[in-house]
Amino acid sequence: MTERKPGVVSVVLVNYKGTDDTLTSIAELRKQDWPQDRLEVIVVDNGSGPEHVGRLKASDLDFTFVDSGANLGFTGGCNLGVEHSSGEIVAFLNNDARPDAGWVREAMATFASGADIGAVASKVLDWEGVNVDFTEAAMTWYGMGYKPFAGSPDTGRWESETDVLFGTGAAMFIRAELFEQLGGFDDRYFMFYEDVDLGWRLNLLGWRFRYQPKSVAFHKHHASMNKFGDFRETYLLERNALFTLYKNLGDEQLAAAFPGSLALAVRRAVGRGELDSTALDLRNPGDDSVPTIPVPKTSMAGIYGIDQFVEQLPSMTESRREIQASRVRSDRELLRLFGNRDEPAYPIEDYLAGYDKIVHSLGVLEVGTRRRILIVTGDAIGEKMAGPAIRATQMAKQLAGEHDVRVISLTRSTQVDPSYEVVTVPHRHPRQMVEHEAWADVIVVQGHALRLFPVLEATQKILVVDVYDPLHLEQLEQGRSDDVDQWNRQILDASDTLNHQLELGDYFICASERQRMFWLGQLAGSGRVNARTYSRDPDLRSLIGVVPFGLSSTPPVHDQQRVKGVFPGIGKDDKLVVWGGGIYDWFDPITLVRAVGELAVRQPRVKLLFMGVQHPNPDVPEMDIVAKVRAEADALGLTGKHVFFNDTWIPYEERGAYLLEADAGVSTHYEHLETTFSFRTRILDYLWARLPIVTTVGDSFGDLVAEEHLGVAVHEQDVTGLADALETALFDEDARAGFIGNVDRVREQFTWENALAPLVEFCRNPVRAADKSVRENSTAVEAHQMRVRVPDRKKLYGVRHDLGRAVHYLRTEGPRSVAAKVAHRIRNR
Q1: Of 519, 522, 506, 525, whose CA–CA distance to 546 is shortest?
Q2: 3-class DSSP state of 9
Q3: What is the pTM of this model?
Q4: Which of 14, 17, 392, 556 suits a disulfide with 77, CB 3.0-4.6 Å?
Q5: pLDDT confidence of 750, banded at 50, 70, 90?
Q6: Residues whose CB falls within 8 Å of the CB of residue 769, separated by 6 or more in sequence, listed in order
Q7: Alpha carbon distance 279, 826 (integer Å)
Q8: pLDDT for position 106
Q9: Does residue 198 contact residue 166 with C-beta atoms inside 8 Å?
Q10: 148 touches 138 (CB < 8 A)
């Protein structure tokens, strides 16, 4: 194996009687915005003849010349060029293509953005830069890769990076060691679909092929094939499509697709030649003394392609065994990269009729279809995330292995994981949600999404409602500082929002068994616990499941010192207890600060850090309790000595390093209704980091800490009891060892893989709720299926509210939308 030079890019061009184009391409490469001492250009001449070889050797351009001595095809020429290369990255550029000045630079930046990016596909335009050559990759079910928008004007639509199944061999980059690991381009192809096959095999091994629109090349397109007849190209396309399909599809997919692919190849051959396949039927008259029938080469190209597939079958079977044995990604995982598989490709009338017969009779498109799952969260997605966004992105990550997943944030978002899409749809622009609702098969919503987006409210797709956060119970505490009328409106508004969700959902997920009992009561009150839902499942697990907040199965990493010895006032040998989340009105941090003050008298090394004061969503205001707890710490003389406030929000991926420096985790709250049904997600981070836990009794985690001896649970507002509990968790080594051992035992049940299992299982076979499916097919609406309303009160904000909504929708969606909403309101009264 060649010793590779770090940072060097080797560009391979294959020349076959196209020396003028090749020299032009080399000249453009030497204009690259990339250090020339890290750019190696290799030209392989594929048996062009003495004249072309002489011109190339006589050129004063800087490149390495390799004479193959024969026409090895695009595959053999490229492979030979790689053998003579030295760069850690190999690029392939058609000799009739010219690169943009940033072609190499942008591709290399893409490799740097992800260690799992094995190859980069360039954006390729025609020579004039007007029309598209390559911007997306797609694969038909019968093995022919294609470029969906080839020939279309470049409208600027394809300017986002994305993972693709393959890149075009006209302009692409690949890690040299990976290219060698894959065995290079398959020499049996000669040319055509060798790039499709390489990209598919790369993806099967778990690497990503990344499309980079900033890495641009301009291509004349098939200059080499202009020297041959169309039938030779057709032969290679037909044969190589069968090669590609046979080698790379999994057993289940291959069994379903391959018979139809062979039948379709024959039908194409007959259609191209406008042949009458009934000519030899005994029922049709004819001169049987004539032993031949005129058949055009375009027809025989397809037949010969099939025959040569048969000829190569032993070696193809061996290749298939190797590929299938080494693959780490299933067909289901890759299906999202195939694009539109239902593409006939050839506009031949008889062929298209046969295509429809094969597709509908053999069901080739039904195998391994991935569902499309849309997850909508109100919180920001990015480096700094609060609970709802963390939960939404973890759902997406777990579901993306089996489905196409798109996460929508209603505020702001950045891509955090390549396995799913992330999109921002502001609630001020409800029309933007329309295309996403149309795309989805299953929709998962949190918060107020159904109220904000009429298209979600009216969706006929399977609807999963995440009610892990009881908004109305939260408002009982959050609005306590407002006047009583405003407070009451907030509570009733949250109740109305939730009742509306309970009416519309097909499946609900909550955070704990205790919560599930609460929600079953509210579902019963809204008419969703009925004969139909009960008949399907007497335990109603098919209607509402427990999907708690989870923790990562990957242990946290301590990359650098974050707190001890870094925060002024916190020494390396101090005992650190952390408050791992925001400070909200329903918590009781004041008792905690007083307890730390009491403990500090006898244990001066105790330090308390509030890890995050400012919410990651700037639209969420700071609550009154923050100022109160700061004032309490100041009044006791603890601020900067024993109590510390981190005024920013720690990035989600960095929190583990902070937690690993802690000696215990704490969460204190008041005993009230919100506490009873809450699910304190910060406790999970303590489990993740193997910390003893000190918490208040009264919620589900308080019970868990006490029952499983994960730390100490104390009664609310008990300063001395809390100080004693902290002392035990921080300074009693025997007790600490016991707590940590129990944490190790319990935490596995809360990993995201386990926590999200009910949702993952539901999405494998999503079904409408039993009562909703009947409702949609019924002309009469029964009493228990009517819209849910909070009894004995007017619609919130009354006529003014309704008029305001009408004006908003008139401006954003037009008069038809307003008329439709009025009709919908009347129908459901």
Answers
A1: 519
A2: strand
A3: 0.55
A4: 14
A5: confident
A6: 505, 506, 507, 528, 533, 543
A7: 65
A8: 97
A9: yes
A10: yes
Q: Is the pLDDT of residue 643 over 70?
A: yes
CB 689, CB 750: distance < 8 Å: no
Cβ–Cβ under 8 Å, residues 250 and 330: yes
Alpha helices in 184-229 (DSSP H): 194-204
Distance CA 106, CA 97 (A): 17
Residues in Cβ contact with 301 at an 8 Å cutoff, skipping those fewer than 6 apart: 231, 232, 234, 235, 238, 269, 272
Report which DSSP code applies to 413. Answer: B
Alpha helices in 72-210 (DSSP H): 73-83, 103-112, 176-181, 194-204
Angle at CA 160, nearest 5°, toward 159 and 162?
135
Inter-axis angle of helices 513-525 and 484-504, nearest 10? 90
Residues ≥6 apart with Cβ < 8 Å to 140? 146, 341, 342, 343, 345
Q: Which amino acid is located at 412 in the chain?
A: R
CA 545/CA 466 separation, integer angstroms = 10
Asked if pLDDT for residue 815 goes beyond 50, the answer is yes
Q: Alpha-carbon torsion 644, 648, 650, 652, what sign?
A: positive
Residue tagged 């290749």 (tokens): 319
Question: How far from 523 is each of 476, 544, 739, 763, CA to CA, in Å?
Answer: 20, 10, 38, 22
Euclidean distance between the first and final Cα of the chain, in Å? Answer: 75
Instruction: For the chain, give the percent of residues with pLDDT over 70.
Output: 89
CA distance linking residue 720 with residue 391, whole number of Å: 36
**What would the two tokens of residue 86 be?**
């030295």
Q: Residue 230 is inside which H or E element, if any?
A: helix 230-248
